[in-house]
């Protein structure tokens, strides 16, 4: 039931129809709703079509899958996802039908009091209506139906009309005066061809009528006089039952000559019925002014204790060989025979109040435990069985008849024990503790007696010997451990229903069936087998049907998982506890169960499963924005979440429809969604995907075909292929640039090594030129002088001695050049004296005077600076002595802020060409420049024929001096001096 007050509908429901895709459509006062069994969705046509917020009075789900809609604005047709309105049907459309030949007919209302064409059919994209000129003189639209002969029936406020091409018959019920409250409200054709007309009649005399041989007769059946009913809707279902909807009295259902009635007091949403409809599954839908109701057959039917059984407590059941079902409870013994329910109570012969255990013996007599007595019910009378001393037997909780026709009765209370009854006389007593306390007793084919003990174990009594079979229990109290019912199979197997599962014994083997085997719960109240050998368990979680093959597999492998059908509350099964006989099987194969409150029945032969409903994708939502569903859907980039809504229209047990889905392109496994009808995906990357969804019906049968939706998620600008190519090209370019940079670094490093080697070779060349070669050249100069002069032994001896000294000096200088690779060739503060020695040694030209001056305090110089200054000075001194022809050579060494070395003469000067580019084959001047550049000094050569040559070398102090104090003050001073010098362009 779905009610207006629950907010399901915005207006009262007026019409119901189902389309071939399985959806149910509800026409209301404020529009159209689509229902899948779970959700009512307001139906809105696509953008561009007319919005359907009008009153909907008529609906038809055609065989071609389209939907015909009758509104106050005329007839509309929803086909191929498009809405078409017939322009020539502007009047309100009331009823729509599809004939057996496929023609669509409808009736439309006319302003009251005016006669017009209200009986119409659809011809292609137009409508054709019939009026008085066609023999159809109707005032206003009425119901339409087609009988088995192909005739159409309709009516208005004054008459009932039968139409076929070329033939019109009119019946005028007595008393119809054409008032607005009078007229034909409903027509239905039953399978036998009889047509029933519902007459909405405010006065006495007319109501529900039947057409008999062309004449209207009152519809009267046992339990219902239709002549006084105000009928609003009629329906003949596929079982031949007639449903009658009334204006204020709810629903009457006539079937098999019996009448059922349903009103708001019985749970119906309202007593004013506006529409009746039977869907493809045989469910009957009822629209009332207050909601919508669905009637369907439950798989498990119930008979309440007070529904004829005469008791509000149903504790035991037994099925007699003649088909009678006996049910006992508090204050009554009820019976069901040939569909009739009756009961025996204390006021009509029941000798007591509480009916306990029941048993039918081999003579078809009924043994009944009543209070603390045992009775035989036969021919409508009770006969009491007493002990030999005349006392009552006690509270009977279980009975069984063995192969020798002994009746075994388990007695509870004080005293507790087991009795054997033969020929209606107690032959033997087994009191406790001789016989352990039991709740149930059953007879085996081999003559043994099995006991269901209150300890949760099994006992076997045969040949005056008792064997006890113990089982592992979870509970600790006897009340929870007790065996609720015993079942002995024809193969000698024994099963017991307990609160911790099913205990079993077969050929000396013991095992237990529990949730570990797949059962939904362990609390089993009763058990029985059907005619096919399937095992049925009546449990606290529902009714379980376990196939015989599954039971055989369980006997072979006790840890196997069982496959079964579960009937729960949605199927009508009601959990409860039966203190005595909990289950029985009638000769027709039906199974009967009691739960302390109601008697329930199930037909194992009715194993037809519900059809697997089709599954559809209903909607796609991206970041809370909905999109229409179509294959090839192109979705925008997904920032957070994608939601896909799907459903499977099913109305019998929609809660049991299960779904599985998979998104191909992202995953390869199925997700079990249970009954959830949405799939969610977060941060789905761009790409093409196929969403697949399948469903199963209430019996677990899967629709493996399912449905699929192909869609594409578009990329953002930074997810496009172009952006990827650009990034790839940029990455390749960057790698290439890094590669080139590295190659250049390696080349520079190799070049630096080459430059270093070249520099070292150049330095060695300078060293050889400035020292070793100079000495050799001086020695050659002395020898040349001696050779030019006449031979003089004394002078030759002096020259040879001087040459020997110079060669020794050349050796020392060569050795010093080699050592200069590792250390300085001069002392730390001996630059001034070293220059003096260089000037005064060797041959000094006649007439040349030499002066050496040191200005400032001599300070420690860096070894490289000291050596290079010495080499520059020595080269300048030797050049002046050899080539200047000067009369004076001056050497000035100044220690100030910087180190300054100045060598000047007053000779002939240096040829300007040599001063700039050097003399070919000589490297003196070039070596001086290279040495000055190496120590960061500035070398200036000024020369003229009038003033001689002036060579000046200045080296920065922060590069030359080694400061004894390397504190922060000295460092800041050095940095300051360097910065100041960097400002000097020279």
Task: Give an account of the 3D structure.
By secondary structure, the protein is an alpha+beta fold. Among the domains are: 302-601, Methylamine Dehydrogenase, Chain H (7 Propeller); 616-716, Immunoglobulin-like, CATH 2.60.40.10; 720-823; 829-986, Histidine kinase-like ATPase, C-terminal domain (Heat Shock Protein 90, 2-Layer Sandwich), CATH 3.30.565. The strands form 18 sheets. The chain has a 5-stranded mixed beta sheet, with no helix packed on it. It has a 5-stranded mixed beta sheet with strand order 68-69-70-72-71. It has a 4-stranded antiparallel beta sheet with strand order 1-30-29-28, with no helix packed on it. A hairpin with a 5-residue loop joins strand 32 and strand 33. Helix 3 (721-788) runs antiparallel to helix 4 (793-819) and helix 3 (721-788) packs across helix 6. The longest helix is centred in the last third of the chain and has 68 residues, at 721-788. Mean pLDDT is 85; it is low at 821-826 and 965-969.
Care to give the gist of this entry?
By secondary structure, the protein is an alpha+beta fold.
Going by helix content, strand content and strand pairing, the class is: alpha+beta
Total strand segments: 72
Helix content: 10-25%
Which residues sit in consecutive blocks of at least 5 with pLDDT less than 50? Answer: 821-826, 965-969
Going by CATH, the homologous superfamily of the domain at 302-601 would be YVTN repeat-like/Quinoprotein amine dehydrogenase
- Sequence of strands across the biggest β-sheet: 61-67-66-63-64
Largest pleated sheet: 5 strands, mixed
Given this structure, which CATH class of the domain at 302-601 is correct? Mainly Beta
What is the name of the CATH architecture of the domain at 302-601?
Answer: 7 Propeller
Q: Please indicate the percent range of residues in DSSP E strands (runs of 2 or more).
A: 35-45%
Tell me, rounded to a whole number, the average pLDDT: 85
CATH domain topology of the domain at 302-601: Methylamine Dehydrogenase, Chain H
Enumerate how many helices there are, as a single number. Answer: 10
Shape: elongated
Query: End-to-end distance, in Å?
Result: 106 Å
Computed CA radius of gyration, to the nearest angstrom:
60 Å
